[in-house]
Specification:
By secondary structure, this protein is an alpha+beta fold. The chain contains 16 helices and 13 strands. The chain has helices at residues 4-9, 18-31, 38-42, 45-56, 62-77, 149-158, 167-182, 199-203, 228-231, 246-252, 342-353, 356-368, 379-405, 417-427, 440-450, 464-492; strands at residues 82-87, 90-93, 105-106, 113-124, 129-138, 187-192, 212-217, 255-263, 284-297, 301-302, 305-306, 310-319, 330-335. The strands form 2 sheets. Strands 1, 2, 3, 4, 5, 6, 7, 8, 9, 12 and 13 form an 11-stranded mixed β-sheet that branches. The protein has a two-stranded antiparallel sheet with strand order 10-11. Strand 6 (187-192), helix 8 (199-203) and strand 7 form a beta-alpha-beta unit. Helix 14 packs across helix 16 (464-492). It is globular, with a radius of gyration of 25 Å.
């Protein structure tokens, strides 16, 4: 029996063969047990062979599988007043100790092979992941290891924008705008980290849909267009050469409000790395000041000429008095959202903070669903399996977040009766089905306890690991209960 959520999620799946459609749904249902490996998830030889047949079938593509999930996710977004579209890139390392995956491309180094995955991840303003509404996946053909950093920089500047990998940010931004135009009742906010600080992205504001906005974390102190006064000749008859930048405008702005934020700890992946975004830092509560300003960015030069100037809003979050030896926390957020009031500025900061949820999704995809441990010989087969695990990873994050952000909703909003009843009866040692289903918060606590969660006083909410274990055991209970029911019916007859 295929889980109700899988049937619903893939109701528009069309692989041009009903048997293939059903097999993909079955595989996703098996993968949702978050098993240690594909054989462990499949349980028997016939199911395992069927899984490999689907993965190796050239008629089944990752895009076909994810297209159904995209459609279901877009439909979920249309039910909300405001949706964040967080985009980011993560590498999927397919490097194996002996035999390498055919078709995988070089990562940062030639000796590491794999692909890059760039989703447009939808999140409600309340913090519930709604799914992936679009994505890109690609493998590099080659990388230049014979060039210095300066030579690579010159080469990038000479390339047309469409030839650069960075064009993926604009492509997903445009995809988000098309979704916004199709759903005018919902406001969509495209949120990106500093890699998306690309001037071509800001140019999209010139004819942007009224219900589509962006928040991008800046990574460079961009030059501002000269004001009318600065363009005038001075008393000596010479033109002013003073150029103002974003930091100058923020330094002149008043403090809008102060706040305390929790900063997570981080250990540098590379010993001695001094880059602000990569170096180690300690976890702490940071007191921050927030400023805001409206600026006009000066269009940079490109191979085809100078780009137009763009007027946007900027919100700065800056830590005051950081601990000794620690760099101050600082976010420079470039946005099209209004900043006329303190509440509007607070909303910009809150929306950017929700971007972190795409990082949690990546963690679940790699650590929980173990996509980098799959064993397929060709990249096409590998990505077909990955595409199904992507939906499973979203489902885990969806349920985990729902228990925190939508705690009072009935669990039947997220699970069918055939799913929650067996788990409830066994875990609660109940003798009959309750007339009112438990809330999603209560039920996910039951699932977490199946996974080993103890629920001590002062302990935080269940995390991904205990949810994974609980869902695996939950599936066993559902299957056993179904078999028991069928046996009982035969006895009655």
């Amino acid at each position: 029996m295929i889980a109700a959520w899988v049937e619903s999620e893939f109701r528009t799946l069309d692989l041009r063969d009903k048997r293939r459609d059903r097999r993909v749904k079955t595989i996703v249902d098996q993968f949702a047990q978050v098993a240690e490996s594909t054989p462990d998830a499949c349980r028997d030889i016939a199911s395992l062979e069927a899984t490999y047949r689907i993965a190796n079938n050239p008629a089944v593509s990752p895009d076909d599988i994810l297209k159904a999930h995209h459609q279901a996710s877009i439909e979920r977004t249309a039910e909300h007043a405001c949706v964040i579209l967080a985009q980011d890139t993560t590498p999927i390392d397919m490097t194996k100790p002996n035999r390498q995956v055919t078709g995988a491309g070089p990562m940062e180094h030639e000796d590491h092979r794999g692909v890059f995955f760039h989703p447009l991840y939808a999140i409600s303003e309340e913090g519930i992941p709604l799914g992936i509404v679009d994505h890109l996946m690609w493998a590099r053909e080659s990388i230049r290891t014979d060039l210095s950093a300066a030579e690579k920089q010159r080469l990038r500047k000479a390339m047309a924008f469409e030839e650069k990998e960075s064009c993926r940010w604009v492509e997903m931004f445009q995809s988000g705008e098309q979704i916004a135009r199709a759903n005018p009742q919902t406001m969509y906010v495209n949120v990106s980290d500093s890699e998306a600080d690309i001037f071509e992205m800001f140019l999209e504001t010139r004819d942007m849909a009224p219900n589509h906005h962006f928040v991008v974390r800046g990574c460079q102190d961009r030059a501002l267009a000269a004001s009318a006064n600065e363009d005038d000749d001075d008393e000596s008859g010479e033109r002013s050469t003073t150029t103002r930048h974003i930091d100058d405008a923020l330094a002149a702005a008043e403090i809008c409000y102060e706040a305390t934020i929790e900063v997570s700890g981080r250990k540098s992946l590379i010993a001695g790395d001094t880059r602000p975004r990569r170096k180690s830092r300690t976890a702490r509560s940071a007191k921050v000041e927030i400023r805001a300003a409206t600026v006009t960015l000066r269009g940079p030069q490109r191979p085809g000429g100078k780009l137009d100037d763009v007027t946007i809003n900027v919100v700065e979050v800056r830590e005051v008095n950081p601990p000794a030896g620690e760099d101050p926390i600082r976010w420079t957020l470039l946005t099209s959202l209004p900043i006329e009031t303190v509440e509007q500025i607070k909303r910009v900061v809150k929306i950017y903070c929700l971007r972190w949820m795409v990082e949690l999704f990546f963690k679940t995809l790699k650590s929980g669903c173990r996509v980098e441990k799959l064993k397929y010989e060709h990249v096409d087969s590998y990505l077909t399996a990955v595409s199904m695990l992507i939906v499973v990873a979203w489902r885990i994050e969806y349920l985990k977040s729902a228990a925190r952000e939508d705690p009072d909703a009935s669990c039947e909003k997220y699970f069918s009766m055939s799913e929650w009843v067996p788990v409830y009866l066994v875990q609660q040692k109940a003798k009959k089905i309750p007339t009112t289903p438990p809330t999603i918060s209560e039920f996910m606590l039951i699932v977490a306890k199946l996974g080993g969660y103890i629920n001590r006083k002062g302990q935080g909410p269940p995390g991904s690991t205990t949810i994974w274990r609980g869902m695996q055991r939950m599936d066993t209970l559902i299957e056993a209960y179904s078999v028991f029911e069928e046996a009982e019916k035969r006895c009655v007859v």
